[in-house]
Specification:
four-stranded antiparallel β-sheet; 14 strands
Length: 359
């Protein structure tokens, strides 16, 4: 200790310079340190979440979960697989050994999932990892001072004005809006009218699925270029949905199914007295109308969805509710990237909000 003291006294200028250098270096490093609530920890777990609308647990297990498990089972350093098949939802949790490269494992799983054939209305599986940094670093509330704006109106303002501005901030990973009611189309079938038309719920459900489609139809090659062709038809209004043909009304005395493409006397190419060119007094070109019934009255009449159902646009049941001082509101959650600085992002978000022009 005495040696260090004598050396420091003999080299006082050097000691002062070292102290100043440490002070400056410490000040610079201190300004670059991140202030975080929780440490940056990666858990060796990946989850595959798949939405299967309208499917029961057994259908989800057979049509989705088992296929996903097969694609995960061969990934390197896999330790365990746990799965849950619920109504409309499949969750497969893959546990890996500590030290495993999760990014490489996630890329492998995502690549494998692209090769499996899932049912037509299943949403694309999502591979997600859990990290404390995925939690929101800021929770904001948007409401109106007079309480006249609904949650839907507030959500539109948030999505159109606030979310785009906050998403541009360096270090912001996602900006999510919650608490807003979404719209849904409610089709209420009339059992009496359906029986009279000879229709079933399964027939109408199948027609609705077949008429709201989007799928690849092949390619067109022109001038050494291959252009993909896609067939799509999306129902965009309740009126368009109501005009959808769900069946055919047969004339009195004809026999056959009421579904387009079925077999019966009212369908072109079927068998029966109401077919042009067939046998019977009511057929055009035959002996003429019978009992005062014109040939037009004997033609099959299309049945629209609006003829057997009531179609309304309503608010979908919400999964979250947001209130600020008792008034309707929407919540805005801001999450940062893995390397983002929580304090800096918070300051930048507040600065961005101050510069917004809101109603």
């Amino acid at each position: 200790m005495e040696i260090l003291t004598r050396l420091s006294l003999k080299r006082a200028a050097v000691v002062v310079l070292l102290a100043v250098a440490l002070l400056i270096g410490g000040s610079v490093i201190a300004t670059q340190l991140s202030t975080e609530l929780l440490p940056n920890i990666d858990f060796p777990v990946l989850s595959v979440v798949t939405i299967y609308p309208g499917a029961g647990p057994n259908d989800v297990a057979d049509g989705v979960t088992k296929l996903v498990e097969q694609q995960i089972s061969g990934v390197t350093n896999l330790d365990s697989i746990q799965s849950t098949s619920a109504e409309n939802l499949s969750v497969v949790v893959a546990g890996f050994k500590y030290g495993a490269d999760l990014k490489a494992a996630q890329q492998t799983i995502e690549s494998n999932l692209k090769t499996i054939a899932l049912p037509t209305n299943v949403q694309a599986p999502k591979v997600v990892s859990f990290n404390f940094n995925n939690l929101p670093v800021l929770l904001l509330s948007l409401t109106s001072s007079d309480g006249k704006l609904s949650s839907g109106d507030l959500a539109k303002i948030a999505n159109d004005t606030i979310v785009p501005q906050l998403s541009k901030i360096d270090g912001v990973f996602s900006v999510d809006v919650s608490g807003a009611n979404t719209k849904q189309v409610l089709v209420t079938l009339d059992a009496t009218k359906m029986r009279a038309a000879g229709l079933t719920v399964q027939q109408i459900s199948g027609i609705l699925q077949a008429d709201n489609i989007s799928f690849p139809s092949g390619t067109v090659i022109e001038a050494d270029k291959s252009v993909p062709v896609r067939t799509s038809f999306t129902i965009t209004s309740t009126q368009q949905l109501g005009n959808l043909i769900v069946g055919v009304k047969l004339p009195a005395g004809a026999t056959g199914g009421a579904t387009p493409g079925g077999a019966g006397g009212a369908i072109p190419g079927g068998a029966g007295g109401a077919i042009p060119g067939g046998a019977g007094g009511a057929i055009p070109g035959g002996s003429g109308p019978t009992n005062g019934v014109t040939s037009a009255a004997l033609q099959p009449q299309p049945i629209k969805l609006s003829d057997v159902a009531t179609i309304t646009l309503t608010d979908a049941p919400g999964t979250t509710i947001a209130r600020t001082n008792g008034q309707p509101a929407v919540g805005i959650a801001v999450a940062k990237t893995r390397d983002g600085n929580t304090v800096q992002i918070a300051h930048k978000v507040h600065d961005a909000l101050a510069g917004l022009s809101l109603p």
